[in-house]
Amino acid sequence: MDYRFNMTPRLIAIAVIGFISLMALLFALGFQLGLQWGADEARLQKAAIAPHPYNAAAPMTAMPAVPSAPAMPAVPAMPAAPTLPSVGVAVSPPVVNPTVTIGRSN
After folding, report:
1. pTM passes above 0.85
2. How far apart are CA 33 and CA 21, in angstroms?
3. Cα 43 to Cα 35: distance, rounded to the nearest angstrom
């Protein structure tokens, strides 16, 4: 049995409509997923910003006093190790020696 595949205008129109509807459905799915993930993210950020209900209800004066630890003996300060410059600080490039030759000199 032999089937002949003809590209008629009707078949092309069906293929184009199917492709456009597939892209529209994928866009709608992505939009809905984005809304859901964004809502979860917003809820987490709102919970992180909001004061804890137990801390907000208790006044600061009602907290029991914490006994202080005994004083630590004085230790001389150690010099800090050299650190890298912070971000945004201008750093000069290393000096280049223009007399260096690579290979055999003639």
Report:
1. no
2. 18
3. 12
User: Is the model's pLDDT at 41 over the cut of 60?
Assistant: yes
Query: 89: which 2 tokens?
Result: 């600080």
Q: Check residues 98 and 8 and name the one with the higher pLDDT.
A: 8
Structure tokens given for 61: 């004066």
3-state secondary structure of 98: coil
Q: How confident is residue 62, by pLDDT bands cut at 50, 70 and 90?
A: low
Contact 34, 27 (CB under 8 A): no
Contact assessment for residue 74 and residue 68, using Cβ atoms and an 8 Å cutoff:
no
The Cα-based distances of 41 to 23, 27, 36, 51, 86 in angstroms read: 27, 21, 9, 18, 32
> Higher pLDDT residue, 2 or 27?
27
- Spatial separation of the C-alpha atoms in residues 55 and 62, rounded to whole Å: 11
C-alpha dihedral over 96, 100, 103, 106, to 10 degrees? 150
